[in-house]
Specification:
81% helix, Arc Repressor Mutant, subunit A, single chain, mainly alpha, 2 domains
Length: 194
Amino acid sequence: MNFLRLALVIFNTLAFLALLIMSIQFGRRERYVWVRRLWLIIALACAALLLGSFQRVALQAVSADLIPDSVGEAFTGDLQLIQSLAVLVLLTVAFVTVRRLGDSMDASERLSVSLLDRVRHVDPERLDLTKREAEVLALIGEGVTTDSGLAAELHISASTVQSHVKSLYRKSGLHSRTDLVALAVLVGSTGIGS
């Protein structure tokens, strides 16, 4: 029975090791810094769990009489210290990451409010957009802001796109594509043009 427990604990340890390796690999490939930090937190948690699994392996090896009690106790004592340090690092990184992510989200919210303030004077119901103008505006809101990109999406010429954009400027009283992005959000939130 002790050998079965030892085998299960070893399997558990290998699973944590695999998760640790995968989280490190995924984190290294990720291009967004916040997602990389979240993968780091997962890797640190896996490392702490892995150290705990090593302790359980040592304890099961002692109970199966594979290693002497004194060696098992020394090994598990050292692992407990290392695991405590790993958990401390994990909590510190998690706290800093969550704090900075919250600050970043606050900045994003302020930016959104600032953009929407630029178009608050526009009444979406009075824009009287054509179907094609509404399509152009919706694509601009999705981040397709160049004439060539809009033309490719709508299967029309770049000069036709320019005509629709000029019409959007005239009808809304706005003067930049950034303002049109904010207008697209405003129009999308009111459900007009859908």
